[in-house]
Amino acid sequence: MKYLETILISFTREVINSISKNLGMFFSALTTTSLSFLVLYLLLIFYFNIENIQKKIINQLTIHVYLDKDIKGEKVREVIYQLERINDIVSIQYISSSEALRRIEKELNIDISKDLVVNPLPNIVYVKVGDPRKIDDVANNIKKIKGVKEIDYWQEYVKNLSKIIDILNKIFIFLIVLLSFGILTIISNTVKMTILARRNEIRIMHLVGAPNWFIKYPLITEGIIILFLSNFFAFYFVKIFYNVFSNWIFSNASFISLIPSDFFNTIRNYIILISFILIIFMTSNTIEKYLKKLAQGE
Amino acid sequence: MLEFQEVSYIYPNGHRALSNINLLIEKGEFVFLVGHTGAGKTTFLKLIYREILPTTGKIFFENQDISLLTPKQVPYYRRRLGIVFQDFKLLNYKTVFYNVSYPLEVTLVPFNETIRRVMKVLKIVGLLEKRNFYPDELSGGEQQQVSIARAIVNNPSILIADEPTGNLDEKSAYKVMDIIQEINNMGTTVIVSTHNLEIVRKLNKRVIHLENGYLKNDSKIKEYFVL
């Protein structure tokens, strides 16, 4: 217990000593990483909201299957049976031509059936697809069914929307990866500069018999402190901004539904976890290299 | 206690710093290492504190071949040595007390024990009253005394001093050597490299003379000066 207490006291003293001796460098690294994290969170907000909007739009899409005019009764059931056998279809709703006409009359509050000699509306089946990305495949299978006259699911619109969103997603992913790498490099460089600034002290530590971990862990801790503090500042700044923005959207453009801000807590936890592991790996590697040089008398 | 067997060292640039050194230093001995600049004195000391490894040959410390130590074992080996440098290598932002306690701090000695040991060695080097001073506030001789206190605070088996009086005036140099002599009297083996032959003559100890990397002479002081 006494040993542990001594380790903790020495360790804390080393960390405070290291930060206080390089305060300017520490704050500049903190500011830069905070700003980088801020941009990273903004990019992630855009990325996930755009993906969310895409999903919502595509999920609302229904394939309208128009049946041949002359099929009735058993043949309609046969078509529906064939539709049910296609994978990825989650719901099927059949509306007969007479039902469609009745709905129009009800909706428009008029009575047009008495003026019509023949009902011009086709029998129609509304088909919903489980995975919107498979909508093209499902549509192609439906076309092959005997009795299907034509189908409509706004193909061009879906394709164009998906294309734009895919490009945007790729750009965002590229920027996110680039920025994440930048953040890790900044923190790793700060540790490198700290090592340079403290090289005399590290050499003395080395010569008086300090084990490598005693030299290494305070420096790694410094990197982790920068990571946590900058993440904290950036995350809460963006969260406050996002909440205000979400409330404004809710009252002024309620048809746009944004992802709740709590969703980003999970994202933040993942970012911290991944950065934590990478920071330990990167800074540890940098320090090991330096200590190896020292051990070789360079 | 410390034995060199056929030790040679060649620097990566090809410079041969030491050639075929054979010698034995017994426990409790006081040894001067003399020779011109470039004779191989610092290389000799670096080999002892394992900053470098011999190109050929073996070095035994208490019957253990120090070349075979793993990187993790090296810090533990160094705790058995005390090292004093010509340029003191003190941390200017730490007081005398904390400079001396540093080896104990990094080896995780409990603080109560640290206070006891630091006070004891500061008394030996005569700097107890100046324990709260910073190195900048001390003379060169006093800074070297702090450096010696730091080197002996861990109760090392060997005290290695690389030109400890090189930056000091005559009076301070003798004071530092008196302290080193006192440490030797307490049973610590001492190896001092120096240019100052006056000090070597006065202390009358064993002298190892290196010349161009070769062991030119290894003798007691009287034999050395007769040569």
Structural overview:
The complex is a heterodimer of chains A (298) and B (227). By secondary structure, chain A is of the alpha+beta class. Chain A folds into two domains: 2-57 and 159-295, no CATH class; 62-153, Alpha-Beta Plaits (2-Layer Sandwich), CATH 3.30.70.3040. Helix content of chain A is 72%, strand content 8%. Chain A contains nine helices and four strands; from the N terminus they run ααβαβαβαβαααα. In chain A, strands 2-3-1-4 form a four-stranded antiparallel sheet. Chain A is elongated. The two termini of chain A are 38 Å apart. Chain B has two domains: 1-80 and 156-227, P-loop containing nucleotide triphosphate hydrolases (Rossmann fold, 3-Layer(aba) Sandwich), CATH 3.40.50; 90-155, no CATH class. Helices cover 36% and strands 26% of the residues of chain B. Chain B has helices at 41-48, 74-78, 96-106, 111-125, 140-152, 170-185, 197-203, 221-226; strands at 2-10, 16-25, 30-34, 56-61, 64-65, 81-84, 158-162, 189-193, 206-211, 214-219. In chain B, the strands form two sheets. In chain B, strands 6-7-8-3-9-10 form a six-stranded mixed sheet, sandwiched between helices. A four-stranded antiparallel sheet of chain B has the order 2-1-4-5, with helices on one face. The longest helix of chain B has 16 residues, at 170-185. The model of chain B has no long low-confidence stretch (mean pLDDT 89). The A-B interface holds A 2-3, 6-7, 9-10, 13, 21, 200-201, 203-212, 214, 292, 295-297 and B 46, 49, 51-52, 71-72, 74-79, 83, 89, 91, 93, 102-103, 105-111, 150, 154.
